[in-house]
Write a structure and sequence with these properties.
alpha+beta; 5 domains; nine-stranded antiparallel β-sheet; 12 helices; 35 strands; 36% strand; elongated; DUF4340 domain-containing protein; DUF4340
């Protein structure tokens, strides 16, 4: 008890001390933090600086923050590299003093000249909304990696010793500070873009225009543009960076090949009056991997990577949408027609299901319909013929397949719209195809044919029987030399022809019979299926009786089967067949029967 009381008292003391530390010492800086703050040369916040000038022998750069962006305003007007400026200002904020020499300790005579202040290696001037600061850096000290420095405190101010490596890192020139991003844009504000390419004495133009949410190729041909490819192209354009700055006077552009540039790459943003245009000229005489370039709105000439430019040009020339159908969603498809010389099928969407309206009327196989729609959505051409409306020679005047799709809302209108897809002749593993709303002939892989229904029952729903299990009162099984019956009375199973009925197996069979499904539809029954003399017969008693005839094994591992009174045979999964026809003995009954059978 005494030990418990001591432990309790100690716990209370620890809790009180912890509370004191938390509440009374909260907000106090650590010794290290206080020392670092005290050693800072400028007690400022980097984010408050809005004007900056950096001078070193032979160069001076002035920058100003306008509308939350840094701009170079002298010696040229240009965008600044925001990351470089942010790091620079943070370095200024945390610049530490290694030693301070008060005014009364500075030797008399021309010591400031000796310390390098008459010809400083670096001068930095910067402003906040409240005050102006400066840093003048002299020469290195004789005994350590430090430099002499002074601030704007006047002639009576102290001299500071700061790290020479930090002072060196603060020496930034024009090329260090200017932005190396070629294009500045918001992808979502672009409404037009293109490339003009010089081919000998002539030009070839590629122009893409945004219409609503879709992109259209305007030149060299009126066609759909691929939105996903264009998004990748914008990313490539955004990542294009300047390697070296060459000149800023804008003269003698012919020496760079920029008076008649080989490429003009441009974008137009809806919120800007003028387009951004990049002019690309000759490769460098000393390095063919670099190209001269400039923005049309600027005098600055710079170099960029030839590989990056070639990729941008090549990918834009392939910006055309090669999908045979314009972009659509699965939800837009309302009705599908399939027509050829031997077959006519119609499938209509009913809620979340599909119905067949032709020979095999009734519920359609939703998975097959959706697989076809997805195949149609992703159907891309290997090649596009541009012979306008000319379809002769492609087998499209008398197509082997005519597929019609009703879209609601339509692809190009707000109303319901029907679009047809014609499939022409086969050639070298390809089929020529054409939709009814565009003039182009597409060459697609012939594997697309496999997604189409071949027979009226091909897309028939795989459900053979759909009942509530409670509707089934009895089922009879005749298989080989055995037969048995299972009845349902007052929620219990009663079997005839089976000793020791397994209730779980009976429930399993009831569920299988109530929701009997096919693996696939086969077609009209033939003699080889042996459905006229079945190997098993199952009669299901409900409001309406159903008789399932099961024949021999199929080559694919299932069993041929037929619902009596229907014209189409189907394949039943072999494991389902075995579960339906085997006697529903309990394990105990089977084990007891084995010795008797042996006798």
């Amino acid at each position: 008890m005494k030990n418990f009381r001591s432990t309790l008292i100690l716990s209370i003391i620890v809790a009180l001390l912890t509370g004191y530390i938390y509440f009374f010492d909260k907000g106090k800086k650590s010794t290290e933090e206080r020392q670092r703050t005290e050693n800072e040369l400028f007690h400022i916040e980097a984010g408050e600086i809005n004007w900056l000038q950096i001078k070193s022998p032979g160069e001076s750069v002035t920058l100003e923050k306008k509308e939350n962006q840094w701009k170079i305003i002298s010696p040229i007007h240009a965008d600044a590299d925001e990351r470089t400026i942010d790091r620079y200002l943070i370095d200024l904020q945390y610049l530490e003093v290694r030693r301070k020499i008060p005014q009364n300790e500075i030797p008399s005579g021309d010591i400031l000249k000796q310390w390098g202040f008459s010809n400083p290696s670096l001068e930095i001037y910067f402003k906040t909304s409240k005050e102006t600061h400066s840093l003048i850096v002299g020469r290195k000290t004789a005994v350590s990696e430090l430099v002499y420095a002074k601030t704007s405190t006047g002639s009576n101010g102290p001299i500071y010793l700061i790290s020479s490596s930090m002072a060196e890192s603060l020496k930034k020139g024009l090329d260090d500070l200017r932005s190396r991003v070629v294009f500045h844009f918001n992808q979502f504000s672009i409404d037009k873009c293109g490339i003009r390419q010089l081919n000998g004495p002539s030009f070839s133009d590629y122009i893409v225009l945004k219409k609503g949410k879709q992109w259209e190729l305007q030149k060299p041909v009126m066609a759909r543009a691929d939105g996903s490819k264009l998004e990748d192209w914008f990313n490539e354009l955004h990542s294009l960076h300047i390697d070296k700055f060459i000149a800023d006077d804008g003269s003698n552009l012919n020496q760079y090949g920029l008076d008649s540039p080989r490429y003009q790459i441009w974008i137009n943003q809806s919120d800007k009056k003028e387009e951004e245009k990049l002019l690309v000229g000759n490769s460098l005489p000393s390095d063919t991997k670099e190209l001269y370039a400039k923005m049309a709105s600027s005098n600055s000439v710079f170099t960029i990577q030839a590989d990056a430019v070639n990729k941008i040009v090549q990918n834009f020339s392939d910006i055309r949408d090669k999908h045979v159908f314009p972009t659509f969603s699965e939800e837009q498809v309302e009705k599908i027609w399939f027509r050829n010389k031997d077959l006519k099928l119609v499938y209509v969407k009913k809620g979340s299901d599909w119905q067949s309206e032709e020979t095999e009327k009734g519920l359609a196989n939703k998975n097959k319909v959706n697989e076809f729609i997805e195949a149609l959505r992703n159907l891309e051409a290997k090649d596009i013929k541009q012979e306008q409306m000319e379809v002769k020679g492609y087998g499209l005047e008398n197509p082997q397949e005519d597929i019609e799709i009703e879209f609601n809302p339509g692809l190009t209108t707000d109303k319901s719209q029907r679009v047809e897809l014609y499939l022409g002749k086969d050639e070298n593993g390809l089929i020529y195809a054409k939709n009814s709303i565009e003039p182009f002939v597409y060459a697609i892989k012939d594997s697309f044919i496999k997604t189409l229904p071949k027979d009226p029952w091909d897309w028939k729903d795989l459900s053979i029987i759909q009942l509530d299990p409670q509707e089934i009162s009895q089922w009879d099984v005749i298989s080989g030399n055995q037969s048995f019956t299972v009845q349902r009375k007052e929620g219990k199973f009663i079997a005839t022809g089976i000793s020791g009925l397994d209730e779980e197996k009976a429930k399993d069979c009831l569920e299988l019979l109530a929701h009997l499904k096919a693996v696939r539809w086969i077609g009209p029954p033939s003699q080889g299926m042996e459905l006229s003399k079945p190997q098993a017969k199952i009669t299901i008693h409900a409001k309406k009786n159903y008789v399932v005839l099961i024949g021999v094994a199929s080559p694919t591992g299932g069993r041929y089967a037929l619902l009596e009174g229907t014209p189409i045979a189907f394949e039943l999964e072999d494991s389902v067949y075995k579960r339906l026809v085997e006697p529903l003995h309990t394990k105990t009954t089977v084990q007891q029967a084995m010795p008797q059978a042996a006798k």
